[in-house]
Amino acid sequence: MQSRLQQRLEQQPDQGIDMSPLLDVVFILLIFFIVTTVFVRETGVEVDKPQAISAAQLEKTVILLAITDGGEVFYDGNQIGVVGVRGILEQLQRSDPRPVVIQADKNVPTQLLLEVIDEAKLAGSTTVNLAALKQ
Predict the structure, then answer these.
(1) CA 102 from centroid of its chain's CA atoms
(2) How confident is the model over 31-75, as pLDDT tens digits?
(3) With left for phi above 0 and alpha for psi between -120 and 50, is residue 124 left, alpha or beta?
């Protein structure tokens, strides 16, 4: 003979926790963080930037180029060389004109730096800046 309490418990349907509201909240938070995240493209290489007293913070929406101490020119993690600068920048400036920032290693020869700046200007970039560390 079962007690009345056991009979009642057996007759009641199982009640579970409804996960739908929790999943909705998590999904909304995920969307919020994805939408508010700022995506900044990096150059993909580490360069030893020179220091300057007049260094200032630039806006986030810039085109970043990097020149390593070995004379390699990078954009978005890919080595493009000096000859690739104009083609890449023409394409980028056509769709969304933005300033160009060159992250040059402090040991880069001036001639190479000037070649990259010239290619950027010939591609239609009106503003070309050099990245430096604030002294």
Answers:
(1) 15
(2) 888 877 766 566 666 666 666 655 556 566 788 899 988 889 998
(3) left
CB 66 within 8 A of CB 47: yes
How many other CB atoms sit within 10 Å of the CB of residue 33?
Answer: 9
Structure tokens at 38: 């700022």
- Which pTM was predicted? 0.60
Q: Rounded to whole angstroms, how far apart are CA atoms 88 and 104?
A: 18
Q: 3-state secondary structure string, the chain?
A: CCCHHHHHHHHCCCCCCCCHHHHHHHHHHHHHHHHHCCCCCCCCCCCCCCEECCCCCCCCCCEEEEECCCCCEEECCEECHHHHHHHHHHHHHHHCCCCEEEEECCCCCHHHHHHHHHHHHHCCCCCEEECCEEC
- Give residue 112's pLDDT band: very low, low, confident or very high (50, 70, 90): very high
